[in-house]
Amino acid sequence: TLIPATLIPGDGIGPEIVDAVVAVLDALGAPFAFDTQDAGMAGIEAAGDPLPQATLDSIARTGLALKGPLTTPSGGGYRSVNVRLREAFKLYANVRPARSLIPGGRFENIDLVLLRENLEGYYVAHEHFIPVGDDPKAVAVSQGVTTRIGCERIVRYAFEYAVANGRKKVTLVHKANILKAITGLFLEIGRNIAREYEGRVAVDERIVDACAMQLVMNPWQFDVIVTTNLFGDILSDQIAGLVGGLGMAPGANIGEKAAIFEAVHGSAPDIAGKGIANPLALLMAAGLMLEHVGRQDLAAKLKVAIDRTLNEDRVRTGDLGGKATTRELTAALIARLH
Ligand code: NAI
Ligand code: MG
């Protein structure tokens, strides 16, 4: 039986890499029945809104979406579509795996996962300026928020993720020495929940700045990292950098009401329409979507096809130092699957 899912081609290179991914998923025999919907600039053109109601309705119905990158229109007062999606579907966990696929890079044999809390912290944007004299922006104030429920939800997700994926250790990343309330609460709750998993998953903790340094000095010491929103935003791009950059970084946004899968990169306007975009980040996001619906078998098959295409066939796009076009890489992946 087919699983209904929303498909958002998105902007810039979005439609090119979405086409590639859909073709590979077909060859793989993935069980998705896609409902294609607009968002981003395409949404503005079709419905006057970068996040049209029809798109929201579709995701509400399917609870599952594969999303191409969206161009955030500058000016015009649109709120970020990604933030709206996170709020609408309470997408509290951002899952960012980083696995090195090509030998000879900066680091080899990296296989770690960062789980970022997606709804709280400093991203609630309770911000304002305080004027002094004739300077309206003399002082800027920002308040962050973390809740017991929010911390429990993300930390529990991290430990359950570790158990489900055979991972050995969860590292709690915080700054509780300075931000004693907003990240102290996260650490306290993290330590409590860790006790429930004693003997099954090890727990470890790091202060965020030290963690950033150690990720570069010795990334192999980490397994699953769980952290608050702002720290997670920064560290998740850092771990993408450990494994070859944005073209190789998938992400999943997991919530109570839906799960949305996407590449970490944006719409890449500089290469859009040239047919040279790397579809692998979005393809790996589709792999996470297969795991999410319980098709670990197909996700594993996909991983093998990607590894062999890159390393045995040596078909790689320009961002990975190769010469292949999006279509050539897609054809090579499909040939590997057949
Ligand atoms: P970007 O990620 O689109 O591009 C950064 C650089 O990486 C560019 O040189 C681009 O050519 C390259 N690149 C990105 N993806 C690639 C791929 N798959 N294959 C080969 N090269 C790739 O970031 P940028 O330029 O800052 O943002 C462009 C637009 O994307 C903006 O409107 C931004 O708001 C939006 N954006 C959307 C995101 C989303 O929808 N999740 C995430 C990040 C940015
Ligand atoms: Mg970010």
Automatic annotation (TrEMBL):
Domain Isopropylmalate dehydrogenase-like: 4-333
GO terms (BP aspect): isocitrate metabolic process; tricarboxylic acid cycle
Gene3D superfamilies xref list: Isopropylmalate Dehydrogenase (3.40.718.10)
Alphabetized PROSITE patterns for the sequence: IDH_IMDH
UniProt-listed Pfam families: Iso_dh
Gene Ontology MF terms: isocitrate dehydrogenase (NAD+) activity; magnesium ion binding; NAD binding
Keywords: Oxidoreductase
Keyword flag Nucleotide-binding: no
Family of this protein: Belongs to the isocitrate and isopropylmalate dehydrogenases family.
Protein name, as recorded: NAD-dependent isocitrate dehydrogenase
Organism field: Zavarzinia aquatilis
